[in-house]
Amino acid sequence: MNLNQVTVSSRNLKKAVAFYKQLGLKLIVDALPRYARFLCPDGDATFSIHLNESMQNNDNTTIYFEDDNLESLVIQLQQKGITFTSQPEDKSWLWKEAKLLDPDGNQIILFKAGNNRIHPPWRID
Q1: pTM
Q2: What was the pLDDT predicted at 43?
């Protein structure tokens, strides 16, 4: 498994995007006012922000882990007693995702995106 992307909530994406660009992240998906994704300056990890006007303390962070053998990984984890809130399914953004929660209720998404993670057809230059 590889830690790939962290998504955080924001009440104001315009301000958040300006801040993270100032930190040196490269904006690669601009879907304001609801979503923005950045490429980290080193490596190929990505970081994103989504609009959440009613942010609550327990639902602001989503952690993504990519695995090329997603279906096998889900089966292995289920055999260890891990409960999933959704099974692997194809998404409109060209990823396959399965969802679960950590003990504190933070959402974790195990996924397979391949080249579409950093180079989706709608990527901006």
Answers
A1: 0.70
A2: 81
